[in-house]
Amino acid sequence: MSERKRYPSDLSDERWALIEPVITAWKTAHPSVSGHQGRYEMREIVNAILYQGRTGCQWDYLPHDLPPRGATYYYFAKWRDDGTDQTINELLRCSVRERAGRLEDPSLVVLDTQSVHAAVNVPAATTGKDAAKRVPGRKRGIAVDVLGLVIAVVVLSASAHDNEAGIALLDTVAERAPSTVKALVDQGFKQSVVLHGRSLGVDVEIVERNPQDVGFVPQPIRWRVEQTFGILIMHRRLVRDYESRPASSVSRVHWAETDRMTRRLTGTTAASWRTPAGVGPAFGLVRAAA
Predict the structure, then answer these.
(1) Of 257, 249, 270, 278, whose CA–CA distance to 76 is shortest?
(2) Can you give the pTM of this predicted structure?
(3) Phi and psi (nearest 5°) for 129?
């Protein structure tokens, strides 16, 4: 074992304890054919994923004291494809809601979309241009509860209409949170989303903006989804869509939410650029596999 300095994105013992059972169960269910347990600790693999998500660095620019690209991407892709990242999110979301005195699943969700620029490596076939917002790239849609916790994520071409995102989000919400009976959306969503929600037993309400309002004016309850977008964008890997596959973009949101909810459950905060150098827990020591 060797010691390294902590990165602000590293999991504390308390945060790791929240997701370790899921990761350990996954590892047990996926033994190596050769019987080799792997060179890197699972905690360090997660630390590398969180580091990249927070800093936005390229795979080849992961620090040398974290697991390398090959090992980190292997697990990132495996957990993306089999839904392990989603499972972790759902368990954490239920815990946060229970701690807030709420039922595990919500009865009301808020839907919205966000168009982001795509990096040059993103295949043109999965991108487009949002004519209304004049953004070439991809469209990220999320459904959140009244606490701002993400229930569903969808990533489409930016040229896709909000209706397409809304319908896909409602389908996922109906599957993951069947107790949902109400959804709030803005005026970008149209009647087809309302009708689709009705077919799922969800009352979709289009919240109209006051025509007298100038600029951005937060609307009751709906502001939660705007707040969540603002929190997600603090993870620089989400500022622009760098992922070749839309599924990887969805996974990035799951990992950003994992970071957010583990901090919320343990009462810790993320270090920001305002934190003076050498101050705070970011400069402690953690152990890494040799």
Answers:
(1) 249
(2) 0.89
(3) -120, 125
